[in-house]
Records
---
Amino acid sequence: MRNRFIKLILLGIACVVLLMYVSLTSGLFEMTQLEVIRTLFGLDHEADHRLVIFEFRMPRIVIGALVGCALGIVGSVLQGVTKNQLADPGILGIQSAVGLAVVCYMFFIQGNVVGMSGLSLAGMSVWGWIGGVLAAFFLFLFSKKHGELDPKRLILVGIALNSGFGALTLFVSLKMNPRDFEMATVWLSGSIYSASWEQVVSMIPWFLLVVPLLFWKASTLNLMQLDEVSIVGLGLRANLYRLLLLLGAVGLISSSVIVSGSISFVGLIAPHIARRLVGIHHQYILPMSGIVGMLLVVLGDWIGRTIFAPAELAVGIVISIIGVPYFIYLLMRSSRSVQPQR
């Protein structure tokens, strides 16, 4: 399995690089392949070319890759912690909670939100993380049955929280002035069209802090798939690790939602594809989910800005069009698997 994993990871990275290059050469501003390559290597000193490549297209592609990687990894962690393969940051309401917290931040400082400055991003990060932690707290509080997480109740509570936070977000956004409302609406749809290098930099600390922690605890996630009696028998402090992994996952979700809005279903689809490719061990699932997440978001963004050109469709909408049928399929398969045999 290790050799298969290494081959698939290398193949996935090659696909990501190829897709990023295709995305880099696509757009309304026409450039030849040679001009793109010369600009990338600093051989083309045309100001327009450098502006398009380095200020518009590259930050957008890099943000797409980072967000996809974060959502893919977080989806795997949430599915591992909850032992529910339908768990996803969007379905469980965590993304909505982060969105509500950030919209509240925009509302309370409306008139001072000018683009995505470093100070705004730092403020949004703090508010977003608090919102995500609050959602996770409610999720675990209302999903327990006899002291254990109930997977079915978890999904129902998540859907309820998602709806509740979504309604509150709409209510707060309607109270905004027209300029902030427009900004919040575009952002909430899951768009990365206004990506900047400041946003890329804002995600780096979360990646450096959280991703190594999640990878380090991959073997613990494997043990968490056992029943509670076996976990207690092994002496594993499951609740402590659940809390630790959840806090890390919320941090990573917050950093991605702040720069891209709510992009749903990546955290649901990526782990499922990863499990089919590399098996059930989280040492392999986590990195593979990150690669698959990258592919999904970069591809979704490329489709959204090329297929419907000159109009643009937000990447969140493109992925939702793909994700909703997939979610229904998983839900039906899950229902069949729990039906008693006659």
Note: The two ends are 37 Å apart (CA to CA).
---
Amino acid sequence: MSKMTRREFGKLFVASLAGSAIGALGAPAILRANTYRVLVIGGGFGGAAAAKYVKKFDPSIDVTLVEPKEIFYTCPFSNWVMGGLREMKDIGHGYSAIKNEHHINVIHDLVVEIDAANKTAKTQGGKTIQYDRAIVSPGIDFKWDAVEGYDEATSEKIPHAFQAGKQTEILRDQLRSMKQGGTVIIHAPQNPFRCPPGPYERASLFANYLKKNNPKAKVLILDEKEKFSKQMLFQKGWQKLYGDMVEWRPGSAGGAVTRVDAATMKLETEFGAEKADVINFIPPQWAGKIARDAGLTDESGWCPINQQTFESTLHPNIHVVGDAALAGAMPKSGFAASSQAKVTALAVVDILHGRTPKPPSLANTCYSLIGDKYGISVAAVYKYDDKENKIVSIKGAGGLTPNDADENFLSAEAAYAEGWYASLSKDIWG
């Protein structure tokens, strides 16, 4: 919390007597203006952006960001690492700029309890943090044991690699050491899950790596769904670049997995068992643990919110952004989380100052790489629809890579993808 100098106190006291619109609020409200405390839990795309933009919108607010990791590795571009196109250091982001340049109190600890009634949070390290408003961005957790045979311990042998870091390295190393002519299976879960195009970009960049280093290998996608994001563009790219190396199998054709057998490296489906040399099993997901423990989730496992302000409908004074939130038509993506964070940051500042937040405008842009110089993208713009009482996509806004795009267009999309990641990361952690 910042301390008020005698001179600053005098200025505020005079202002409170000025009879202006500000003065009409009365001295107690103004004196409190420098004491507002915003606690942000989680330092990923949503949390780090929220902390930074609360401070940008009102530098007088004390902002505390609690994040366990000192380096945050992003899920976006982790497929590039596993495909040999980037190194781990390229997707790791620290908090020095947020702390030193944007003057946010960064605590590397884990929040283990939120007391919504008393507006406090406790950390694993023993700290108790008070807040006036909290913004929770916990990301996703996995529903361990939702599929027989797959639990957290099994993920050391059969990685999910959908939370970047050690899991990314495990799967990258398995791919590189796979025998010649081997098979890698990627299991894609039912919706909703983090980064809807993620499993399919992963299959693309695995094939891109294997084509150069293990050309007789095969990539099989077992999918719980019947369709997926950017499907036509992905399948066209796979056929053009990799021929029969990539096979996608929907749920109705044997893609639904009923059991994981880590000992024999087999996945059982209604159509029989599939054996692999490398398995990437992406399990069903729900909101991060602290959101569930704090009572911010409903029966869906995700967090219901007021979709104008992202304030929880279950606990007042707590806002939820990013993958954990039920945010209408918006996908669970890093860019969407950062967009939600900025809207939420402004709403929090408005609420603290007694102003009514304006209806939000939001956006999402997502690039996927199919080959070294073969990129595709999707973009959408969203608004709050007061008739439907939720966030909806605006028809005619945004777009998708044309299905008949030529090589120059696709090569440009691949270059745009690099710029997209660099600018997004700089905006959040820079």
Note: Confidence is low (pLDDT under 50) at residues 1-33.
